[in-house]
Amino acid sequence: MLTPRQKVPALTVETLSSGTFDLTASTAEFATLVVFYRGLHCPICATYLKELGRLLPQLKERGVEAIAISSDTEDRAQQMAEKVGHEDLRFGHDLPLNVAKDWGLYISTGRGKTSIGIEEPELFSEPGVFLIKSDGSLYFASVQTMPFVRPHFQEMLGALDFVKKNDYPARGEYTGAV
């Protein structure tokens, strides 16, 4: 389990248009928003990433850079990027599933074609949203076992304003006995 205020696991993936993404080399002023999505087969992911792409300028104003990552192949990631239609949204691909597990993501088995007629991969990770501070520590995490009910990026903008104004600490850091 990842712990707020502690360093996150290594994360290095190839991207469609900006070479290799290495979280440790992030130049984000405040934080990097890492959005793990299920893959091309997921229509909810496409809608979710369209919203992320729309809000990228507002995130950047708050010192946050974003990347969307899946275990999809480069070709499938390219198809998703085209579907999403935001050229400034970075897409990482070929996320190793052992790395997904290191990040606490759930892994699902493919069940054939989805409602949009696209074959699910044999194995893929379920969604997760992580905000990683510029020092490499976990600030926020949301991990799902299903494609439904994800954090809203619009709400995140207001939360970021509050967090930065009040120097609000990451919560959930206690790991002692209860």
Could you explain the architecture of this structure?
This protein has helices spanning 43-61, 74-84, 97-102, 153-166; strands at 12-15, 20-22, 31-36, 64-69, 90-93, 107-109, 123-125, 128-133, 138-143. It has 178 residues and is an alpha+beta fold. A seven-stranded mixed sheet has the order 2-1-5-4-3-8-9, with helices on one face. A hairpin with a 4-residue loop joins β8 and β9. It is globular and about 45 Å long.
Tally of helical runs: 4
The helix/strand order is EEEHEHEHEEEEH
**Estimated share of beta-strand residues:** 15-25%
Low-pLDDT segments, ≥5 res: none
Helix fraction bin: 25-40%
- The CATH homologous superfamily is termed Glutaredoxin
Which fold name corresponds to the CATH topology? Glutaredoxin
Instruction: Supply the number of structural domains.
Output: 1
Gap between N and C termini, in Å? 17 Å
Mean pLDDT: 97
Main sheet specs? 7 strands, mixed
Number of strands: 9
Across the major sheet, the strand order is 2-1-5-4-3-8-9
The radius of gyration over CA amounts to 16 Å
Give a nutshell description of this structure.
With 178 residues, the chain is of the alpha+beta class. The protein has helices spanning 43-61, 74-84, 97-102, 153-166, and strands at residues 12-15, 20-22, 31-36, 64-69, 90-93, 107-109, 123-125, 128-133, 138-143.
Main attributes?
two-stranded antiparallel sheet, 4 helices, 23% strand, alpha+beta, Glutaredoxin, 7-stranded mixed β-sheet
Summarize the topology:
Elements: E1 12-15, E2 20-22, E3 31-36, H1 43-61, E4 64-69, H2 74-84, E5 90-93, H3 97-102, E6 107-109, E7 123-125, E8 128-133, E9 138-143, H4 153-166
Parallel strand pairs: 3-4, 4-5
Antiparallel strand pairs: 1-2, 1-5, 3-8, 6-7, 8-9
